[in-house]
Amino acid sequence: MVARVWSLMRFLIKGSVAGGAVYLVYDQDLLGPSDKSQAALRKAEEVVPPAMYQFSQYVCKQTGLQIPQLPPPPKLNFSFRDSWNSGIITVMSALSVAPSKACHYSRKGWDYIKERAK
To answer: Whole-structure pTM over 0.85, yes or no?
Structure first.
């Protein structure tokens, strides 16, 4: 009985976390334009470290454990927008050219076999 309740609790917790993540993505409009995604990333970089520190202080106070101070997250001077878009463009262009390239290479292979068969 306890195992079933525990598995149900695990399922509900995982479902709640997944639902919260989907809601957060939708609420912050992270799947929209990349400008909004970058703004949300900057906002998270500002908000998450203080929140983690406050949570660790709360856990220390409640449990009496000493949690070492986490190092600050690295500063990224990398444009995710340009890289994301260029990667998507490269993949989509390769997929759009794939059928014609396959036809071209199969025709070249067929011509090569015809020449060798003569």
So the answer is: no
